[in-house]
Amino acid sequence: MTTGSLHVVLTDIEGTTSSITFVRDVLFPYAKQRMAAFLHAHQAEPVVSGLIAEVRQIAELPASSGPDALAAVLNQWADDDRKVPPLKALQGLIWRDGYESGALKADIYPDALAALRAWDAAGVPIYVYSSGSVEAQHLFFGHTVEGDLRGLFQDHFDTLTGAKTDPGSYQTICAITGYQPDEVLFLTDNPAEVAAAHHAGVQVVAVQRDGGAPLAVPVGVPVVSSFADIPAAMQPTP
Ligand SMILES: CSCCC(=O)C(=O)COP(=O)(O)O
Ligand SMILES: [Mg+2]
Asked: Of 92, 124, 191, 238, whose Cβ has the fewest other Cβ atoms within 10 Å?
């Protein structure tokens, strides 16, 4: 743990700022139920057709595979919570309608919102790193139960920057944002992400929400159940 040397926040979404329940029980089913129809309707559009080509390549499907076969693969990936970039991008495209119609409203833990607002007010830059696509992250924070929160964030990263379980991804984010790893406070609920960021030299606080099973984290990494419990020595300053 360091004192007074943290100058930027990098946060995960699902299980950290916001509940796993909303993502798994609301967002994922919403996309799953609409995946086949979405592919049928939009397969000729350049963005969607590029994503379909990626799915075919990753799943080793023939070029003749149609929307129903593709949707079956994509929905299985979603059920397995695979963080495959074209799946995450397609989910984001499908969620757009739900957010814009008001059918979807993202949640955010009150303690997370309070801390994010306080850091932002103090001039601490806040970045998001989630497996959800950058597009999905904008939609998520643009349509929360607390209104449009996009202004809190400096920028967003997704798995196009690299897997969240790869230490190199955190080094890439540091290079892009211009911070040294030990200046970055990363918040996440995922032990594999904790380990990867810690390995990269990033300062990590593990977040364990809703009384889940104890997180196995490297020695010295604090585990909190609320952003309000982030140790004073790890509070970022501008
Ligand atoms: C941007 S909201 C959707 C979240 C999502 O699709 C996901 O896979 C959650 O991943 P995270 O890295 O935020 O735990
Ligand atoms: Mg998470």
From this structure: 238
